[in-house]
Design a protein that fits this description.
The chain is an alpha/beta fold. Helices cover 48% and strands 13% of the residues. It has one domain (32-288): Alpha-Beta Barrel (TIM Barrel). α11 (176-200) runs parallel beside α12 and α14 (276-283) runs parallel beside α15.
């Protein structure tokens, strides 16, 4: 558990401490673009079989690190583990994405939801974190994560994925009290879950607010950001003598960066819709920034990938506080060699900005 970190530049950049090169990792870096991942998933039988088996979750977490000189590992899991542990019955339909056997549609449904105990109800995740930390043996830091309360609520109310969030938004406007009750319960569950991951060995945590950007500015403040702020305030911020950095990532949240920077996190994740140089000017020294290359750039030739990496590094400029990442998860059709060219370009081209 306490093997010294051989490469801590990811943690250092999140805390705006000096680094030799800009650290890089990719959202969804253990995923279907890798043939070795597809083979593991085949062996596991299905996606949840992979998530719920700590040894296999560890195996796929480490696969991208065997292939690429990444600066962080991220726990292999799913954002919907919490609603599943609340008894909603998560399953995956081919081509349909995640579904729940039970949806949450009323104040009574919300009242009946338990707040899961991370060690008892989500023990398989904690076991995976401990296993991965042991197997990493200090190679790079391990990132834990959760979905945000609003993002989790949308799946729970809709009963699965949604394009328009019709039922969630109707509840938000028709019965804000019920929605606040649900979000409050989820904020408590996420806080306990992330603290469980930190105690088990996660060295940084990220809150994925995938659907916060689908809200109006006023609704975002009231129904998403305030709950993420509450989670951040309740997190363990030091473990094993080191600070545990917290990253907030709201997809399509570029309009609200100043407010997000006040939420108490160490870093903000950026999607590819905003300019990272402009984002840096807007947040000043309050937070580090993570991002923000369009994942689709990885379909282009290595020279084009390299040019886009150079552009983003130049836009951010000199100094620390930048973790290079994609603006969302890597997609299944990407050529693994292109991901390698991306990571190599970040390390090679960023050295001149640190000195």
């Amino acid at each position: 558990m306490t093997a010294p970190l051989k490469n801590d530049r990811f943690l250092r950049a999140l805390l705006k401490q000096p680094v030799d090169v800009t650290p890089v990792w990719m959202m969804r870096q253990a995923g279907r673009y890798l043939p070795e991942y597809r083979a593991s998933r085949e062996r596991a039988g299905d996606f949840m079989g992979l998530c719920m088996n700590p040894e296999m979750a560890c195996e796929v977490t480490l696969q991208p690190l065997e292939r690429y000189p990444l600066d962080a590992a991220i726990l292999f899991s799913d954002i919907l583990t919490i609603p599943d542990a609340m008894g909603l019955g998560l399953y995956f339909e081919t081509g349909e994405g995640p579904r729940f056997r039970k949806a949450v549609r009323s104040a009574a449904d919300i009242e009946a939801l338990p707040v899961p105990d991370p060690d008892k109800d989500l023990g398989y995740v904690m076991d995976a974190v401990r296993t991965i930390r042991r197997e990493l043996n200090g190679r790079v830091p391990l990132i834990g994560f959760s979905g945000s309360p609003w993002t989790l609520a949308t799946y729970m109310v809709e009963g699965g994925s949604s394009k328009d969030f019709r039922l969630s938004k109707a509840m938000l406007y028709d019965d804000p009290q019920a929605m606040h009750a649900l979000l409050g319960k989820l904020a408590d569950a996420v806080t306990a879950y992330l603290n469980g991951q930190i105690r088990a060995g996660a060295q940084a945590v990220q809150i994925f607010d995938t659907w916060g950007g689908n809200l109006s500015a006023a609704a975002y403040q009231e129904f998403s950001l305030v709950y993420m702020q509450r989670i951040v305030a309740g997190l363990i911020r030091e473990q094993d003598g080191r600070r545990i950095p917290v990253i907030l990532f709201t997809k399509n949240g570029g309009l609200w960066l100043e407010r997000m920077a006040e939420a108490g996190a160490d870093a903000l994740g950026l999607d590819w819709m905003c300019d990272i140089g402009e984002a840096r000017r807007r947040v000043g020294d309050k937070v580090a920034l993570q991002g923000n290359m369009d994942p689709s750039v990885l379909y282009a030739k290595p020279e084009a990938i390299r040019a886009e990496v150079a552009r983003i590094l130049a836009a951010y400029g000199s100094g620390t506080g930048h973790v290079f990442n994609l603006g969302h998860g890597i997609t299944p059709q990407v050529d693994p060699a292109h991901a390698g060219a991306f990571i190599e370009a970040v390390h090679e081209l960023s050295a001149r900005y640190h000195g």
